[in-house]
Amino acid sequence: SSNEHKLNFKKSKEACLSYIQDALLQKQWKRAAEFLTCYVESLEKDYSREHIGPSEMIWRIGTEILWHHSQSKMKEFNCFMEQMKTLGVKRYLKVCLEHVFHLLCNGQIDEAYQNLSLAESWRFGEQTAIQDKEIKLIQAYRGLLDYCSWSKQKKILLEHGEDGFADLAVEQEMHGYFRKAAVNLKEIIKIPGVWDVFVKCYVDLLEFYGEHNEARQVLNEYAYNSKFPANPNAHVYLYQFLKRQGESKKSLISALKILHDIVPSHELMIDFNTMLQKSKKRKKRHLGLEVIFAALDYAGWKENAKAWSCLARQVKQIVISEKHLDWIKQEWDSRKDWWTDFHFSHYLAKRNWQENKSLSCEKALVAGILLGKDCKYFKYISHQGCKARLKRFRMLKKFVTRHNPVYLRISG
């Protein structure tokens, strides 16, 4: 019966999709391609009298297979994407974008630009209004390629000799790319979202032509507008811009404070800590200690010599002055149950000594202050350093031994 036929078809279709999924997971691209071919052919055969467009599943699966298949060629990929464009009105622009990305990955920049230009001029009734944001994204990527062309012309101009006519021609062409890029990049960053690459390029254009106030406005909007999602990079770009402009330490610290609140493990926390340590204000120096302790909570910082040097330097200053030992105690109380194994084990002492003696010295100082002269890490490193007759390690051992009472005060 007709119902039985439909039921059997549904089962076979689901089984075929299951086989495709299994092949994809096992990276068996040839097998996946064969099953997908069967899947598409069965759809055409069973529904030849009905108008059925290809599902997004076929587009996604087919793209993945063609991207990884060893025998896949660019011509075949282009042909597949053109078929997906013509048969999927609602996702036409998405398919165009994916096609452009593939062209760019294969170094076909001119073809990518041409595809973007064609997509930008695409119109289809009410779909045009519905896909307005996607049109803006298409325009933004075209602006990005215009920026790349502008950047190439800028490089030529800067490397040129004193040929006035040649310089003028290059400068005119460069300015043409600037206008096209600026218009499209400016539009996309008005829409709330994460637009890192577009913002960076637009700011670069503005800075080159001396539009520093507008660049500052763009970056402030990107970082502080509550309509935009929280984005650490927005604060990184603002900080880097302020630094290039020679802004005050107060402005730089303000930008990094927000970054610290969002991503305490960011690499710029070294810069942040350094600025805070140099401050004359006690509150900021206290924050500096919090910042470097927080950064070292993360595994990616375990062997960061600069970070341990920052912490060792500040801890040493506090111990010598015997002021603000409560700052160290406050930070250590919440970490003493796990930092010992995380940072100061005997195994790590041996490895650090073998790989980076400078790092091991900084860590040993911190370990000796926080855990006392009987700490495994400190004992191993100081012994190895003295055994090797390294003056630095003899001084380290004397310092920690002399200030061992500090450990008793910190440990409570």
Written overview of the protein:
The chain is mainly alpha-helical and 412 residues long. The longest helix is centred in the middle third of the chain and has 28 residues, at 132-159. The chain has helices at 2-25, 29-46, 56-68, 74-87, 92-105, 109-120, 127-130, 132-159, 164-188, 196-208, 212-224, 232-244, 249-262, 269-277, 282-295, 305-321, 325-333, 339-343, 346-355, 357-371, 376-387, 391-402, 404-411. The chain is extended, with a radius of gyration of 30 Å. The protein contains 23 helices and no strands. Helix 5 runs antiparallel to helix 6. Among the domains are: 126-225; 230-301; 324-411, no CATH class.
The rounded Rg comes to 30 Å
Overall form: extended
Rounded average pLDDT: 88
First-residue to last-residue Cα separation: 84 Å
Question: What would you call the structural class?
Answer: mainly alpha
Count of distinct strands? 0
Order of helices and strands: HHHHHHHHHHHHHHHHHHHHHHH
Task: Give a brief outline of the structure.
One of its GO terms (biological process) is transcription by RNA polymerase I. The chain is 77% helix and 0% strand.
Please write out the topology.
Blueprint (H helix, E strand, L loop, with lengths): L1 H24 L3 H18 L9 H13 L5 H14 L4 H14 L3 H12 L6 H4 L1 H28 L4 H25 L7 H13 L3 H13 L7 H13 L4 H14 L6 H9 L4 H14 L9 H17 L3 H9 L5 H5 L2 H10 L1 H15 L4 H12 L3 H12 L1 H8 L1
Helix pairs in contact: 1-2, 2-3, 3-4, 4-5, 5-6, 6-8, 8-9, 8-10, 9-10, 10-11, 11-12, 12-13, 13-14, 14-15, 14-16, 15-16, 16-20, 17-23, 19-20, 19-21, 20-21, 20-22, 20-23, 21-22
